[in-house]
Amino acid sequence: MITINTNKLEYKLIAVPNNEININILDKPSSVTFISESKTFYLVIKKDSMSYLRQLKLGLASFIQMCQGDTNIDFNSFAKVIPNINKEIIFNVVCDVILFETHKFITYKKDVMTNDYLFNIDQSEEFSDLLVENILKNKYVNYARDLQDFPPNIGTSDFYGEKLLKDSSKIEGLKVSVLKNKELKELDMNLILAVNQGSNHEANVVVMEFNNNPCGKKIALVGKGICFDTGGYDLKPSAFIEGMKFDMTGAAIVMSIAMALAEAKAKINFVAIGLFTDNKIGQKAVLPESIIKSKNGLTIEISNTDAEGRLVLADGITYAVREKNADVVYDIATLTGATAMALGESASGVFTEFDEMWKKLNEASNYTTERFWRLPIFAEHKEQVKNDSVLADLTNSCIKGPGGSTAAAFLTFFAEDKEFLHIDCSRVVRVGLKGQGYIVKTMFELLKK
């Protein structure tokens, strides 16, 4: 729990640039030293090749693990040792780390240590409203993490459909529905149905709608929700099957953003679409080289069954544009290994032909400190998506070339000239086998206004 300027507590946390105050302090960037005589933790933040904010994040995370009781945090000491950075950003990072590290995460272990200590931020600025917003944002960062972390035998498409319907129905003004195979067939959403063919669970498309801006545009958030991705008949090798329960992360993020915005009563109109299914092999699973007609009428050649994410997104984007009259479309997906190889765990890849969309996302990310990097969609990428198909309008997997860009180019055929931005977040969304809820804060910041 976090408070501001309340009672003096048993322990203190102070940021220092070196160990001049006490030679027993380890003078190393992001290190934390506990001095028992004064019941004080000292976090060293200093000029170094490691950025100030990274030192702050790593040091705070270490402090949370070491913490022994209720603690006062000397915020002004942090602001003093971190030059040229807005105090709001520093305050946000302090809140982010505390709320992230103290979250009671999903686990099936018998004995789990929890941290229920009180953290009081002593500071002279008036940040009470900012604290309330940070608590709300991080509530849904942690909600996304929990959705990510469910094991695949529990976290099925049916499970997510039921859970999201139940949880979101508690939020005033948020309309929620779940489309299953019968409704999807009636809507001609044949691409998600094709991906779902090998599954013993129906596809669940969770649709959240919120209207709180009579004169505003309608924003669509579309998320890939592949609950487990075997690759289908283009089966993944064992080295690449680990962590495939996280292939539903895009939908987890989109649903969490929607719930956060609705609970905050943001002045926005949106439809959020979580496309939940799995991609399995079996007697009925879709075969490579199959031709499927998409919801918007284009035919797709399934050149690779392991390029299933763009298929479900394509129908989801068309649904947003044609059925829900979206003016602007964002999609979020753990989509390609190519983008993961290019950016690793450093940033999410962003693909858009709309410069203003990128500019606004980048500004929001500078505030939240989540990182994004823009990558291209060139005309030749779109040409390749068409030309590499033998029998259909488009292929779902090009023969060669930059896989992240050709995947994004494929999706542009379904945005129908609407403002469109695609986020490919394959590696930043988890650390090992633990979800991170990445992107929720940035999209909340971007859209809340």
Strand order in the sheet with the most strands: 7-8-10-9-13-17-14-15
How many distinct domains?
Answer: 2
User: Which CATH architecture of the largest domain?
Assistant: 3-Layer(aba) Sandwich
Structural class: alpha/beta
| CATH homologous superfamily heading of the largest domain | Zn peptidases
- The residue fraction in helices comes out at 25-40%
Low-confidence stretches are none
- Report the strand count: 19
Question: Mean of residue pLDDT?
Answer: 96
The Cα radius of gyration reads 23 Å
Specify the oligomeric state. single chain
Number of helices: 14
- Coarse shape: elongated
- Here the CATH topology of the largest domain equals Aminopeptidase
Largest sheet: 8 strands, mixed
The CATH first-level class of the largest domain comes to Alpha Beta
Distance between the termini: 27 Å
**What share of residues are in beta strands?**
15-25%
Please outline what is shown here.
It is built from 14 helices and 19 strands. It has 449 residues and is α/β, with parallel strands linked by helices. The protein folds into two domains: 2-102, no CATH class; 151-447, Aminopeptidase, CATH 3.40.630.
Quick tags:
2 domains, 449 residues, Aminopeptidase, 6-stranded mixed sheet, Probable cytosol aminopeptidase, aminopeptidase, elongated, alpha/beta, manganese ion binding, single chain
